[in-house]
Design a protein that fits this description.
Elements: E1 3-7, E2 10-14, E3 25-28, E4 31-34, H1 43-48, E5 66-72, E6 75-84, E7 97-99, H2 101-105, E8 111-112, E9 118-128, E10 131-140, E11 143-151, H3 152-166, H4 170-182, H5 188-197, H6 199-202
Parallel strand pairs: 3-5
Antiparallel strand pairs: 1-2, 3-4, 5-6, 6-7, 6-8, 9-10, 10-11
Helix pairs in contact: 4-5
């Protein structure tokens, strides 16, 4: 039976470890944020170039790297990428990390992530009376096409609307059946809520305004 973890964005299936993972970073409107744990824009690059993926020295970073991104002139760029320094315990401090950006970008000072088609999700660190505020950036071929700045309640309402639109697609039916097979003891309501909570992982663009 696949385990479940409850996260801010809903339930997710778990493998053999629940270890915290250091997130990728993004600089947006001059401020650096931590991307949602399921948002890793450079994974496709390493999937296609597995020989370039760095070795992981810690269970807190299974993917082996931390990517540093920035939205510059409405485009998504990688501005640095680091791997853990085996001499130190990994922390947010870049002194515990080793940059290998030049191995990726060579002589460039930034590297456009031109293949990326997805929604970047991240939140502000501070809390308001309505909880945290969230940023959702729709990226198509490395270009920022739409952005949303939402409260937690607004994000919840958006997921409801996105679910309605997603239910009209073949992909919804495929994922619903797959989840039913994974969680045979769960009813249809649970599966529907699971998909709603994970909706931003299943779509690559806003299906509704």
């Amino acid at each position: 039976m696949i385990g479940l973890i409850f996260t801010l964005f809903g339930f997710k299936s778990a493998d053999s470890t629940f270890t915290f993972q250091y997130p990728d970073k993004i600089k947006y409107l001059g401020i650096q944020y931590s991307l949602n744990e399921k948002t890793n824009p450079f994974e496709e690059y390493f999937d296609k170039n597995p020989d370039k993926r760095p070795e992981s020295y810690t269970t807190a970073l299974w993917r082996g790297y931390i990517g540093y991104f920035e939205i510059i002139e409405q485009q998504l760029f990688l501005t640095d990428i680091t791997r853990p320094n085996p001499k130190y315990e990994l922390t947010e401090d870049k002194k515990t990390q080793i940059s290998f950006f030049k191995e990726i970008a060579r002589s460039e000072d930034k590297f456009k992530v031109e293949w990326y088609n997805d929604i970047l999700v991240f939140s502000k660190d501070e809390y308001t009376k309505n909880g945290r505020d969230y940023f959702l950036l729709e990226i198509k071929k490395g270009i920022l096409t739409k952005s949303k700045n939402l409260t937690y309640n607004e994000l919840t309402e958006l997921k409801e609307r996105l679910l309605i639109e997603f239910q009209k697609t073949d992909d919804y039916n495929i994922r619903f059946k797959s989840l039913k097979n994974s969680f045979p003891d769960k009813d249809d309501v649970f599966i529907k809520n699971y998909i709603k909570n994970h909706i931003l992982e299943y779509i690559t663009e806003f299906l509704t305004d």
